[in-house]
């Protein structure tokens, strides 16, 4: 029960990594304010937490709007009497290629993925500083480290790593730790993956060939990393990027196999 008596906000908590993270933190004792842009998704996560005996509430709003992020933090303080952890998980993804991008959808991806994390941190920081403690965990991606398509999303995730480091250095002396988790491919029910599976039901098996562990990730894999970074046991971890990708960015096994085959 690492989070007994603590309060957490999880953005994009209605599905995928956000939902699993909300469930994980609540299972360890946290009161969780589940944010999502879709009311039904947030309420579904809250219902699952309540069914397991945990404590949670839903907050519907856009992280791209400063008024919503300020209200989000205020709701945590009012409903649960405090705030200890902020998980910036919300993101937006539209186009998979540069050619497919427009200025409008490029801005939309940045507004949620990058500006949303900034606005949520900006709203939470005064409270964290006043109590001289707090943990922020930003959810990045291997897309921010290497090219895997989705250029606007990837650029926003790369910028989010820089923001993570800025927050860690500027607010670390004030008791606020900021870290990042960068997942590889995670099997979720997000619209992008649902569409990919519609076009190719075998997509996750094909992608698994690129992972040294032999599979793609699960939301629980990322929730576990987030739960560690936000906990008191990680009190000396600040400004790091924890890559949770099954070894994807460590090397390319298929390429290595071909090279070995060529050498006989």
Terminus-to-terminus distance: 53 Å
Q: What is the CATH superfamily classification?
A: NAD(P)-binding Rossmann-like Domain
How many discrete domains? 1
> Please, how many helices?
9
Q: Tell me roughly what share of residues is in helical segments.
A: 40-55%
Q: Could you say what the CATH topology is called?
A: Rossmann fold
Q: Mind telling me the CATH class?
A: Alpha Beta
How much of the sequence is in beta strands?
A: 5-15%
**Number of E-type strands:** 7
Strand order of the largest sheet: 3-2-1-4-5-6-7
The stretches of 5 or more residues where confidence is low (pLDDT under 50) are none
Helices and strands: which structural class? alpha/beta
What is Rg? 18 Å
CATH architecture: 3-Layer(aba) Sandwich
Oligomer category: single chain
Structure write-up:
The protein has 264 residues and is of the alpha/beta class. It has a single domain (7-191, 217-248), classed as Rossmann fold (3-Layer(aba) Sandwich), CATH 3.40.50. Helices cover 48% and strands 14% of the residues. The chain has nine helices and seven strands; from the N terminus they run βαβαβαβαβαβαααβα. A seven-stranded parallel beta sheet has the order 3-2-1-4-5-6-7, with helices on both faces. Helix 5 (151-171) links the parallel strand 5 (134-139) and strand 6. The longest helix is centred in the middle third of the chain and has 29 residues, at 103-131. The chain is globular and about 65 Å long.
């Amino acid at each position: 029960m690492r989070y007994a008596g603590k309060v957490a906000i999880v953005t994009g908590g209605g599905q995928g990594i956000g939902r699993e993270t909300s469930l994980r933190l609540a299972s360890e004792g946290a009161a969780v304010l589940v944010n999502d842009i879709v009311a039904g998704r947030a309420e579904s996560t809250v219902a699952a937490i309540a069914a397991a005996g945990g404590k949670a509430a839903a907050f519907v709003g856009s992280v791209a709007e400063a008024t919503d992020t300020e209200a989000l933090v205020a709701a945590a303080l009012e409903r649960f009497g405090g705030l200890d952890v902020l998980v910036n998980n919300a993101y937006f993804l539209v186009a998979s290629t540069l050619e497919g991008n427009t200025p409008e959808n490029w801005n939309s991806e940045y507004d949620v993925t990058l500006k949303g994390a900034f606005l949520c941190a900006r709203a939470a920081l005064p409270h964290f500083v006043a109590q001289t403690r707090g943990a922020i965990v930003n959810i990045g991606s291997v897309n921010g480290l290497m090219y895997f398509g989705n250029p606007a999303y990837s650029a926003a995730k790369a910028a989010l790593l820089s923001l993570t480091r800025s927050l860690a250095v500027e607010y670390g002396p004030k008791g606020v730790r900021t870290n990042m988790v960068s997942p590889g491919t995670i099997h979720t029910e997000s619209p992008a993956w649902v569409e990919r599976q519609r076009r190719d039901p075998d997509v996750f098996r094909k992608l698994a060939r690129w992972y040294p562990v032999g599979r793609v990730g699960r939301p629980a894999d990322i929730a576990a990393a987030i739960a560690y970074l936000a906990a008191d046991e990680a009190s000396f971890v600040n400004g790091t990027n924890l890559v949770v990708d099954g070894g994807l960015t460590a090397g390319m096994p298929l390429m290595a196999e071909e090279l070995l085959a060529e050498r006989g």
